[in-house]
């Protein structure tokens, strides 16, 4: 464990088991529908790459990058699309793949956008959910772990672009962002 981490919240082993389980559930759910999985850059990358390898069904992938956080641990409440998907979503089953749902603003907006573009269905899988932080009405459809209101890093998640490469999910020491 590195010095910046207060405690390991979810171990590498626990992540691997959960991702395999979610992949199996999603494979059953989306069998025969060739879903378009949309990964949200950059935080969702490890989760995205791991879960698609537990989904042995026909599917397509694409990516979006949105900003909401800037360089702080609090959301600005403003969603800006930095990179959009390149596929036509009309009539497609869209599955967003996200690292964590916090205030809910990002995914609520992205869901609305896909429906506006006439997607057949829009759902979200998020590895983590921080329910206590929600400020808009949004729920992910397939959640890995419910976590308390603490700022976490690792397995894709960052603080100021650092710690994304940790293989586990840990709570950052407050002194690191104060
Ligand atoms: P929301 O729009 O507030 O739900 O923001 C979701 C985004 O905020 C996620 O995709 C993360 O990039 C970021 N985020 C929220 N909580 C954390 C955290 O504890 N650690 C790292 N990033 C976080
Ligand atoms: Mg993110």
TrEMBL record:
<dbReference type="Pfam" id="PF00156">
    <property type="entry name" value="Pribosyltran"/>
</dbReference>
<keyword id="KW-0963">Cytoplasm</keyword>
<keyword id="KW-0479">Metal-binding</keyword>
<dbReference type="GO" id="GO:0032263">
    <property type="term" value="P:GMP salvage"/>
</dbReference>
<dbReference type="GO" id="GO:0006166">
    <property type="term" value="P:purine ribonucleoside salvage"/>
</dbReference>
<keyword id="KW-0328">Glycosyltransferase</keyword>
<protein>
    <recommendedName>
        <fullName>Hypoxanthine phosphoribosyltransferase</fullName>
        <ecNumber>2.4.2.8</ecNumber>
    </recommendedName>
</protein>
<comment type="pathway">
    <text>Purine metabolism; IMP biosynthesis via salvage pathway; IMP from hypoxanthine: step 1/1.</text>
</comment>
<dbReference type="GO" id="GO:0052657">
    <property type="term" value="F:guanine phosphoribosyltransferase activity"/>
</dbReference>
<comment type="function">
    <text>Purine salvage pathway enzyme that catalyzes the transfer of the ribosyl-5-phosphate group from 5-phospho-alpha-D-ribose 1-diphosphate (PRPP) to the N9 position of the 6-oxopurines hypoxanthine and guanine to form the corresponding ribonucleotides IMP (inosine 5'-monophosphate) and GMP (guanosine 5'-monophosphate), with the release of PPi.</text>
</comment>
<dbReference type="InterPro" id="IPR050408">
    <property type="entry name" value="HGPRT"/>
</dbReference>
<dbReference type="GO" id="GO:0005829">
    <property type="term" value="C:cytosol"/>
</dbReference>
<feature type="domain" description="Phosphoribosyltransferase">
    <location>
        <begin position="13"/>
        <end position="159"/>
    </location>
</feature>
<dbReference type="GO" id="GO:0006178">
    <property type="term" value="P:guanine salvage"/>
</dbReference>
<dbReference type="GO" id="GO:0000287">
    <property type="term" value="F:magnesium ion binding"/>
</dbReference>
<keyword id="KW-0547">Nucleotide-binding</keyword>
<comment type="pathway">
    <text>Purine metabolism; GMP biosynthesis via salvage pathway; GMP from guanine: step 1/1.</text>
</comment>
<keyword id="KW-0808">Transferase</keyword>
<dbReference type="GO" id="GO:0032264">
    <property type="term" value="P:IMP salvage"/>
</dbReference>
<dbReference type="GO" id="GO:0000166">
    <property type="term" value="F:nucleotide binding"/>
</dbReference>
<keyword id="KW-0460">Magnesium</keyword>
<dbReference type="InterPro" id="IPR029057">
    <property type="entry name" value="PRTase-like"/>
</dbReference>
<comment type="similarity">
    <text>Belongs to the purine/pyrimidine phosphoribosyltransferase family.</text>
</comment>
<dbReference type="GO" id="GO:0046100">
    <property type="term" value="P:hypoxanthine metabolic process"/>
</dbReference>
<dbReference type="GO" id="GO:0004422">
    <property type="term" value="F:hypoxanthine phosphoribosyltransferase activity"/>
</dbReference>
<keyword id="KW-0660">Purine salvage</keyword>
<dbReference type="InterPro" id="IPR000836">
    <property type="entry name" value="PRTase_dom"/>
</dbReference>
<dbReference type="InterPro" id="IPR005904">
    <property type="entry name" value="Hxn_phspho_trans"/>
</dbReference>
């Amino acid at each position: 464990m590195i010095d910046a981490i207060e405690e390991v919240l979810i171990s590498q082993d626990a992540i691997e088991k959960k991702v395999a389980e979610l992949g199996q559930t999603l494979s059953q759910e989306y069998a025969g529908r060739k879903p378009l999985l949309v990964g949200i850059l950059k935080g969702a990358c490890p989760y995205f790459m791991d879960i698609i390898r537990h989904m042995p069904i026909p599917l397509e992938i694409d990516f979006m990058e949105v900003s909401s956080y800037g360089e702080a641990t609090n959301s600005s409440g403003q969603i800006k699309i930095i990179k959009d998907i390149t596929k036509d979503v009309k009539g497609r089953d869209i599955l967003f793949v996200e690292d964590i749902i916090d205030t809910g603003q990002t995914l609520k907006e992205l869901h609305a956008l896909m429906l506006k573009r006439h997607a057949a269905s829009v759902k979200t899988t998020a590895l983590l959910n921080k329910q206590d932080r929600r400020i808009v009405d949004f729920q992910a459809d397939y959640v890995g772990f419910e976590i308390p209101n603490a700022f976490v890093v690792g397995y894709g998640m960052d603080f100021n672009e650092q710690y994304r490469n940790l293989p586990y999910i840990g709570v950052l020491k407050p002194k690191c962002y104060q």
